[in-house]
Amino acid sequence: MWNVMGIFGIYIMFFRELIPESWPVDITVMPSSIEIKMGEDCKALSFPPEVMVVPPSCRGLQYVPGDGLHMRLLFQADLNTKSLPAVGESLKPKKRCTFYCQSCGESIISNQTFLRVLPLPSEDWNDLVDEWCCHPNPFNNSILQPQNGDCFLGPNYFLVNSGTESACSGSEILNTDSQGAASKSSDSALNSKANSRIICKRCKTLLGEIMLSGATKYYFTELLVQPSEENFTLAPRSAHIQRTLAHALTELSSTRSTFRFSIQGTDGATYILIWLLNSDTFLVESAGNMASSNVFTLLEFGMSSDSRPSEIWKAVKLLYHPCIKSRNKELIDAWGNDAGVRTLTFPSHTCLEMLLILSQSNISLPPSLRWMNSFQVAFLKM
After folding, report:
1. Which residue in 280, 287, 243 sits closest to 88, CA to CA?
2. What are φ and ψ of residue 114, in 5° steps?
3. Integer CA distances (angstroms), 284 to 14, 29, 187, 281, 295, in order
4. How many other CB atoms are found less than 10 A from the CB of residue 253?
5. Could you report the per-residue pLDDT of 331-360, keeping only the tens digit for each?
6. Are 200 and 102 within 8 A, CB to CB?
7. Which Pfam families is this protein grouped with (predicted)?
8. CA–CA dist 252, 265 (Å, integer)
9. How many CA atoms lie within 13 A of 382 on its CB side?
10. If I label 86, which of 98, 157, 217, 320 is the partner at 20 to 30 A Cα–Cα?
11. More confidently predicted of 295 and 342
């Protein structure tokens, strides 16, 4: 939960259904709502009780072909914005938790208690030791290996000791030999750690993999973590992926000053190039059906005649390039040779889902806001 007090922000609103043929139109701006009258038809856009409009701030009223009617407003917010916790934030030492497959809800690891939950350093930490030490690297070729009861958190995955597999009842190991043939096994991870992947027994979704060191790596996008004493609730897939990716991007940008990211699949292919712009965006959306929304403001603003209150969320704004089907190959090579670009790896099917989510966000924007330079624009809700 993000506590935000006294926020002031400029919102750009688009009323798509207001075309010149429907004029004249009367627009009344009030502290808690906006009323739009077209003849005898009157519709109201209500804001959350924590959000107040500054009525005299209405300016920039203009009609843009293809977008609709534009209007700029100044908002004042005194609110607790909804920002659901990331998967890693749900993992606490000495607290019993259960891992579920995010796709189907199957219990993967039941009633697991970790004695230590620690963040991992950057993946190139060992390369920097020479700069820290005045003598030969004492950690040369060392690997951060979780012991029994350990859970190490990466930006988009976590590592556990292979012994944790003994508590695993909802997954199985898929072994791939050098010829590409696959076989399934329920034996210990130590007996099948090379080129092994972990899949859900029920839906066969890729959940993680067995590292060559023997540690088990799970992707945050594929699992839900809840305290064992709480009832399980399966979150919508799209919302879970958005939240996981947004948290990874913002965490890396704040701790390592990284704003450009290459999203790669477990197959080694690059799917998306992302440039993070803003991590302090607020998304206000209607409690009604967004599919029929004709009003947009910094992501979407639903307008309905029943004046139901809206909800406000924290979101991130980003630019992206899709890279499937050999698109943007030169840019992929350039970013791949840039030390300022961070690579994040996810299961390949999840990368395609991410690209679909970004595309849906982009197409929901008015045409004038869908592109910035050569990049496409999208938002992710946290």
Report:
1. 243
2. -100, 135
3. 13, 17, 49, 10, 11
4. 17
5. 999 999 998 999 999 999 999 999 999 999
6. no
7. HECT_2 (PF09814)
8. 19
9. 22
10. 320
11. 342
The range of the structural domain enclosing residue 307 comes to 237-381
Token couple for 7 = 């926020």
Residue 377, SS3? strand
- Assigned token pair, 4: 């935000």
Buried b (16+ CB within 10 A) or exposed e, 280-316: ebbbbbbeeeeeebebbbbbbbbbbeeeeebebbbbb
Report H helices in 149-304.
237-256
Are the C-beta atoms of 318 and 378 separated by less than 8 Å?
A: yes
Q: What three-state secondary structure class fits 368? A: helix
The identity of residue 135, as a single letter, is H
Residues 116 and 379: their CA atoms lie apart, in Å, by 34
Tokens describing residue 171: 């997954």
**Of 39, 66, 81, which residue sits at a domain end?**
81
Q: Contact 219/208 with Cβ under 8 angstroms? A: yes
Record the tokens describing residue 289, joined without a space: 């059906």
**How far apart, in Å, are the Cα atoms of 324 and each of 107, 244, 329, 377?**
33, 22, 9, 17
What's the CA gap between 140 and 159, in Å, rounded?
21
Considering the domain architecture, whether residues 193 and 249 belong to the same structural domain is answered as no
169: tokens are 């009842």
Is residue 27 located within the same domain as residue 128? no
Judged by DSSP in three states, 142 sits in: coil
